Amino acid sequence: MVTTAQVIQILEKMAQVIQKNKDYLTELDMPIGDSDHGINLTRGFQAVTAKLPTVADKDIGTILKTVGMTLVSTVGGASGPLYGTAFLRASGKATGKSSLELNDFLDMMDAAIEGVKMRGKATVGEQTMLDAMVPALEAMKAAAGQSPAQALAAGLTAAQEGMKATIPMVATKGRASYLGERSIGHQDPGATSFTLLLGVIAQQVQEG
Ligand code: ADP
Ligand code: MG
């Protein structure tokens, strides 16, 4: 499905997409948070981009572990440790690998979700990034018999729907939970950034 070189390309494109959506993500974080989600992730992925040349010749596990550690150490706010944990957990499923098949990616997503759930003590339906991640993985598992591009496309559609489904939710985790019922009516920033990141992977797999 993807080679090491394509993983590097995906990470570079993730940094570009986050940078491009910096203001959008920060605006989503304004009414229910502290207006920094786009700023946080842009800082983190810029640091990732700077690190990539030092690990580009390593196995995919090492590359993703570096991404996770970089996000944890450079991103202030909840999303740094959460995305950092996601990449670190995913990296454990890619140790020694120089290419990934769809099944590897599904295992990595599974591990990433478990990590986010544990670290954030959250589950689906609490208006967080999990509301995009979990339905995306379920849709990709359901479509795993199809081509990787089709499975990723199904996952992306489910992530987009999950992201929209956060709007009527009451936030019960993270900063937005301080608002209680006033968090209703707002799309979760983390569910949105996850959907953007998955979109990069889906596009790369589509283009091959
Ligand atoms: P902060 O809330 O510290 O300012 P960010 O604004 O960068 O951090 O990220 C906020 C996003 O992090 C939320 O939109 C949500 O998706 C995610 N998030 C916050 N807390 C949790 C949690 N406990 N579990 C899962 N995701 C969470
Ligand atoms: Mg914030």
Brief rundown of the structure:
This protein has helices at 4-20, 22-32, 37-55, 60-74, 79-92, 102-120, 130-142, 148-165, 189-207; strands spanning 2-3, 99-100. The protein is mostly helical and 208 residues long. The chain has a two-stranded antiparallel sheet with strand order 1-2.
Mean pLDDT: 97
What compounds are bound to the protein? adenosine-5'-diphosphate, magnesium ion
Rounded to an integer in angstroms, the radius of gyration calculated over CA atoms is: 16 Å
Biggest β-sheet: count, sense, barrel? 2 strands, antiparallel
Q: What keyword list fits this structure?
A:
single chain, 208 residues, mainly alpha, binds adenosine-5'-diphosphate, binds magnesium ion
Characterization of the model:
This protein has 208 residues and is mostly helical. Helices cover 70% and strands 2% of the residues. It has helices spanning 4-20, 22-32, 37-55, 60-74, 79-92, 102-120, 130-142, 148-165, 189-207, and strands spanning 2-3, 99-100. Strands 1-2 form a two-stranded antiparallel ribbon. Helix 1 (4-20) packs antiparallel against helix 3 (37-55) and helix 1 packs across helix 9 (189-207). The radius of gyration is 16 Å and the shape is globular. The mean pLDDT is 97. Bound molecules: adenosine-5'-diphosphate and magnesium ion. Residues 29, 33-34, 36-37, 40, 77-79, 82, 116, 120-122, 128-130, 173-175, 188-191 line the site of adenosine-5'-diphosphate.
